[in-house]
Amino acid sequence: MSTVAPPRHSSQRPGQSPRPFRAPAPVPHSTPLGFAGFIRTASRNPIEIWGTRAFKEPYIRGAWLGVPNIVVNDPAGIRYCLVENAKNYVMQPLRQRILRPLLRDGLLTAEGQLWRRTRKAIAPVFTPRHISGFTEQMQARSALFAKTLAKREGTTVDASHEMTLLTFDILQETLFSGDIASEPEGFARSTRDFLGSMGRVDPLDLLNAPAFLPRLRRLRGRKSMNFFRGLIAETIEKRREKLDRDPDGTPNDLLTLLIKADGLSSEEIEDNIITFIGAGHETTARSLAWTLYLLSQAPDERALVETEIDEVLPQLTHPSQWSEKLIHTKAAFEEAMRLYPPAPSLNRTALKADRVGDIDIPAGATLLVMPWLVHRHEMLWDRPEHFMPSRFLPDNRDKIDRYQYLPFGVGPRVCIGASFALQEAVIALALLLKDLRFDYVAKHPPRVVQRITVQPDGGLPMRVSRRH
Ligand code: HEM
Question: Residue 453's domain is classified under what CATH number?
Answer without folding.
Answer: 1.10.630.10
